[in-house]
């Protein structure tokens, strides 16, 4: 197939629509993570639908001292990747096309959720992100839009905006794509030197350590629920050489809930070790949050959660996260 390159909304609106239109929004510098989003969009749109990939480096979501000027612009390569992944069109508008007359005076405000974590580290970032997402949704007029789970807070805010402001568009989340060594794919990875990249692996290792600690706790609790606290059962377990396992399981089952604290501690240990590497990892935040509002969860929390981390290695700032489930929902 041949992917059309469009630069104006009029060109996009002139296309004949058949079936569903699925949109993947990017800032360019496409990689396998973006390609996965596009392939998923192709599956959702089906052979009769249309997949549109937007490529736009949005100035509103870059703060003072951030990397707007050096953010990679690779449109020719992006077009090839989009075509290979199944896109029908790449919409790559200019800043003047998206913001005619200059910066918009009316903008979307992210609210309290937008002031936490990424919002606290990058003031105004989410207001700019939501403003351009709203504009691009209006310009592309999709039935469904797809976003990666790597940007978990962004995804949560887009879902909230679409729901609160009645956009009538389906939002689909696509799991994070990782390198073989675990590093989450990001356009900013290209800024890392070999030594910096080795340090950056601590982000995913920390998340995996928290996940593994959580899985071990849940396994012990499940085992405890299966072991009745009767004398006969204890004797049988002892005879089988399982008395220690039974004791551990009962200890966990009767202890006060401490799952989230243990998960944070396991992840923190990895990050603390990475802070002593050369070059060091400079932690911005480690958080275990409720994805509905990105507030920290308590020890009695049950349900879906997100373990999120942000850090700087050299001059490059990276983020990553993993979903976890606590309590009865596990």
UniProtKB/TrEMBL annotation:
Gene3D superfamilies: HUPs, Pantoate-beta-alanine ligase, C-terminal domain
Positions contributing to (R)-pantoate binding: 61, 154
Note: The reaction proceeds by a bi uni uni bi ping pong mechanism.
Keyword Cytoplasm listed: yes
Main enzyme class: ligase
Assembly with partners or alone: Homodimer.
Keyword set includes Nucleotide-binding: yes
Reaction catalysis annotation: (R)-pantoate + beta-alanine + ATP = (R)-pantothenate + AMP + diphosphate + H(+)
Keywords assigned: ATP-binding, Cytoplasm, Ligase, Nucleotide-binding, Pantothenate biosynthesis
Localization terms from the record: Cytoplasm
Family as reported in the entry's similarity comment: Belongs to the pantothenate synthetase family.
NCBIfam families, A to Z: panC
Entries under Pfam families matching the protein: Pantoate_ligase (PF02569)
Function comment: Catalyzes the condensation of pantoate with beta-alanine in an ATP-dependent reaction via a pantoyl-adenylate intermediate.
Enzyme Commission designation: 6.3.2.1
Gene designation: panC
Protein name as catalogued: Pantothenate synthetase
Entries under InterPro entries matching the protein: Pantoate_ligase (IPR003721), Pantoate_ligase_C (IPR042176), Rossmann-like_a/b/a_fold (IPR014729)
Residues that, per the record, bind ATP: 27-34, 148-151, 177, 185-188
GO molecular function: ligase activity
UniProt main location, coarse: cytoplasm
Binding site for beta-alanine: 61
Catalytic machinery residues: 34 (proton donor)
Protein's pathway: Cofactor biosynthesis; (R)-pantothenate biosynthesis; (R)-pantothenate from (R)-pantoate and beta-alanine: step 1/1
């Amino acid at each position: 197939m041949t992917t059309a390159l469009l630069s104006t909304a009029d060109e996009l609106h002139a296309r004949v629509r058949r079936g569903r239109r699925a949109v993947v929004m990017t800032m360019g510098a496409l990689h396998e993570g973006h390609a996965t989003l596009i392939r998923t969009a192709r599956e959702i749109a089906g052979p009769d639908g249309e997949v549109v990939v937007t490529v736009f480096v949005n100035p509103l979501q870059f703060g003072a001292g951030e990397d707007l000027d050096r953010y990679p612009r690779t449109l020719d390569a992006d077009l090839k990747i989009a075509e290979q992944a199944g896109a029908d069109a790449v919409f790559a508008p200019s800043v003047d096309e998206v913001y005619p007359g200059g910066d918009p005076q009316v903008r979307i405000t992210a609210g309290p959720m937008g002031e936490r974590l990424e919002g606290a580290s990058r003031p105004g970032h989410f207001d700019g992100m939501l403003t351009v997402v709203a504009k691009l949704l209006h310009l592309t007029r999709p039935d469904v839009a797809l976003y990666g789970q790597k940007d978990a807070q962004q995804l949560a805010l887009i879902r909230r905006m679409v729901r609160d402001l009645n956009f009538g568009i389906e939002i689909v989340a696509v799991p994070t794509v990782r390198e073989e060594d675990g590093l989450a794919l990001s356009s900013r990875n290209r800024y890392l030197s070999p030594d910096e990249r080795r340090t950056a692996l601590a982000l995913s290792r920390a998340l995996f350590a928290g996940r593994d600690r959580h899985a071990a706790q849940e396994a012990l609790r499940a085992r405890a629920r299966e072991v009745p606290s009767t004398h006969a059962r204890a004797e049988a377990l002892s005879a089988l050489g399982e008395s220690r396992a039974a004791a551990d399981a009962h200890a966990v089952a009767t202890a006060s809930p401490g799952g989230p604290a243990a998960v944070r501690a396991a992840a923190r240990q990895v990050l603390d070790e990475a802070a002593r590497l050369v070059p060091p990892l400079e932690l911005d935040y480690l958080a275990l949050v409720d994805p509905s509002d990105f507030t920290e969860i308590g020890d009695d929390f049950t349900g879906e959660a997100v373990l999120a981390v942000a850090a700087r290695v050299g001059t490059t700032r990276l983020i990553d996260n993993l979903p976890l489930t606590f309590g009865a929902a596990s």
